[in-house]
Amino acid sequence: MEEKELTIHQIQAKLETPIFEIHTDDNKYHTREFMLKKNINQCFISMKENSQARGLDYKLDHWERYVVERNQANLVKYLYKLYYLLNKHSIINYFENRNSDVFHPMMEEDDMIFIVNSYYTTIVYDILWASNIAVSDVINLSQNKVDNNNLIRKFPDMIKYIKTDIIPYLESIPLYKSKAETLKEATEAFAVKLYKATSSLILIELDGLVRLLGGFLIEKQNIDKKLLKPKYHSMDSYLRNVPWLLDYEIETSKLKFLTGDFVFHKDYKIDKIEKISLETRLGFLKRRFKGDRNSILHGDIVFGETWDLYVNFSALFEVYQTIKFYENHYYSQ
Question: pTM, whole model, 2 decimals?
């Protein structure tokens, strides 16, 4: 049965009407009532944040409009859920048969919706695709804050991973062996604190690795060469126009962060395996990453050393994991 559309008056009336009284009712009930009302107000704040979208004079592109509309839709769904939970029966029922040490009245299983549908997290920074992004960093980014010191602390381990895992792996495969040399240069540049040079080399490397991987898949997936244009000059058109097969296996829990499509529904299964294409797997390279990359290479903006270096390292890790998957997928059959 479809829910009736709520009105602002109905929501405001619930927010202003006390359900439990402090000192007279069980305090945990009042605490949960407070939490539900707090989250309803946060929904409105987050929806306003998305609707303002960098000010009235900023024109969103197609992808940004889609993201804002998706964020708004998810926040509205969450708002409806909170509204229908905000009653005496639901609040009392929340604590029945629950371990109080595990379920705190201030915790809601869907609180993450504010982070993954934040305008800053999904559009301005668009970094949820990075499998190594820390919760603390995501929370900061959702509030338009970048903790550069926390990112810098990650760099030694990221460089070590490039040296001990990525470079040896690429050297072991003839198709990618030449790219290992560029990565060695990038680590050497980083060692002498030439961070902008490091980022530049990583950007060049990413384009080359994706093109090599794409050529490999065109052969393995038996893609008809007649469907390919003579040249795809941009990474965007290359990933978007080639009819890649849906053969990359990924858990739903990871896919939602990879694409940014956090869909709010009650029967969501985190352990489901889905099959996606190369375009979906590396789709983040066509979004904010593409725009920032083009602006940097064309001289429109300069590197912000810490953030750009972190993003470029993270993108390299995702491309590397994609290469490893396809190597195992096609050579283990």
Answer: 0.84
